[in-house]
Specification:
heterodimer; A: alpha/beta; nine-stranded mixed sheet; two-stranded antiparallel sheet; B: alpha+beta; MutS, DNA mismatch repair protein, domain I; DNA polymerase, domain 1; Dna Ligase, domain 1; 5 domains; six-stranded antiparallel beta barrel; 14 helices; 30% helix
Amino acid sequence: MPGVTVTVLPRRDEEARARLDHTAQHVVPVALAGDQVLAVPGELGALLPGSALRRGTVVAVGGVVGAGATTVALGLVAAATAAGEWAVAVEGERTGQLGGLAAAEVGVALHRFAVVRGVAPARWATVVAALLDGFALVLAETPPHVRAGDARRLVARARERKTVLVVTRAWPVEAALRLRAEGGHCAGLGAGADPLTGRALHVVVDGQGAAGSSRTGEVASGPTAGLTAAPTAVAAD
Amino acid sequence: MPPRTAALWCPDWPVVARRVRDDGLRGVPVVVTERTPRGERVRAASPEARVEGVVTGLLRREAEARCPGVVLLDADTHVDAAAFEVVALAVETFTPRLALDVPGRLAFPTRGPARYFGGEAALGARVLAAVAAAGVPDARLGVADGGFAAELAARAAAPGRAQVVAAGAAPAFLAEWPVAALGDPALADLLTRLGLSTLGAFAALPAASVLGRFGTEGSRAHRLARGLDPLVSAWTVPPPELAETIELDPPVEQVETAAFVAKSLATQLLARLDRLGLGCSRVTIEAETEHGERLARCWRHEGALTPDALAARVRWQLEGWLHASGGLSGGLALLRLLPDEVAPATGRQLGFWGDDPHASDRAARALARVQGMLGHPAVVTAVPQGGRTPVERVRWVPWGDPREPARPGSEPSVRRAPGESPPWPGAIPGPSPARVFDPPRPAALLAADGVAVTVSARGEASAPPAVLRCDALPGGGGDVLGWAGPWAHDLRWWDGSTRVRCTRWQVALVSDVACLVRVARTEAAVEAIYD
């Protein structure tokens, strides 16, 4: 019967699944944009070009110890896990550990966030390359004296795997986006009275190409409610 | 009504398996321990050790203390599985339709063999005699309606005896058991708190209400408690074309090689079932040797099998065949996985778009690879827990281990509803530091006159801090701009060896760096930086 569309119920197999995938691709309005970028919400996102990180690019987060670089980097991790993606961090050998609680306060979904520890500088590039295969975002602390060749290979790998590579400390080669934390006033701390309540971090963002212009802004760092304990109260376990 | 089923249970199978392999362990107290998130615990103990007071779940140290001279062995599922093949062979002489559960437990339907051997009690006695002749005298057998009741009947049976629960009497038999017998600790805990301590009390609830309150998992447990098999109508025997077969050329002699092949075969089979929307609860593993020997064994699994679980069972079975008396006459030439019971997979509903269902698999693969390079504990994931300091309030769990906090009060402060968990007295308030030093870095906290700041037993500082010096800080530290504290912590004062007495300060330097400083006696250390 020409002209009459015969509709049969699809069998529950590849065909049906392929049709579903096909339909999903066509009806989802944000699929294209969502595939290419990781949206970063909040004040940190407002500083980034397009309020997002482009997948497959390298983001270098710099700043002296204590200036808030780790908090900024964890903010990017939080953006990835909030989008339902998985993230992983590679810790440096002797520069301290990531604060798991701080990560939770910034908004990282801890069950989708792993941390790799004790990576010797000689194996650092291999480990990061292996992680780039499986995650949407890899946060890696650059060891001292990383070779420029290794770094370029990682840049290429990240581009190929569509993974965001966030590196902290000195990154020897180019990065699509450079964030620099420049510290900020520690609110609350005075002469022994009040504990730290929060911090407004000063962040400078430099980009390449379309994201060329430099931007500067303030990012509030984790004010937490709850836990009130009077100083000098003697605690017993 | 579920079909009449017999369950064979060998108590403390890991110990029995070791004794089968090593005669020197007979007659001495033996304990098999396994590594758990809560330390090394006893998994199985021999009767000699049990007399001395060793029970399952005891800490290894405690077991050694209660039973001096005990032989401690690490748990090894492969050894258990390989040794259990002897029992399976003995039972196979009575019925071909047996299904292995885990090493130490198997089940088979009794309808045919019970008629042939003159009743269920007679069959039970014969099976136990055959198992005892194979070198396992302590096995127990239970016969009842359905696998769950049969298994509990086996647990109630005397050593070397069969316990038969008459047809239709399963609900009455089950009613006395505690809800913990369901094998779901979380559900059992909840039911106990609701005042339903026995299966009978749980079974008395209306099925619709149970489904509404506890979901499909609870509904399944409810069916078990009522003496019905879960999903008894849904499981069907699949058509033969669902089998996955692989020919091995050249024939494989090593378990390792065969297990590697089996893993990909298991993944293929389950992927194909998955495409058809089916889950598999029983699978028959078949192998042929190069001389035409045919071997087959059925394995059962609660719920649906995952590729890893299936691959592990294939491996156990292959080890069993290779280590059984005589072993195989030649290498394996063919391996076949035949799903024995399938049901519509009601498992996971994935999002239509947005959520990538493969992301977790990809991440797990990458992490497994890194764990292979650096070792299991090198990849960790954070679990918030109770505590006072940033180090205490996070437990780092190796990837793959259960994410459980070691101390209560686990919810991070930002998400805690007021009054939900009691606060830890003396906890450091405010935002948490992003960079933590464990162990802390040595530092010097000085007063304006250059003397180290100390804190009296009453928690009073000798002088306000003015200068902080530490290698971990930029520029080696500097002048103090503001500070809070001290928080005095006197921990475990009742135990002289682990007692900790120290104070903690939040210190901000003029260079806008904030950190957490710990002072014990006169020694200061930087514990964390608000980076």
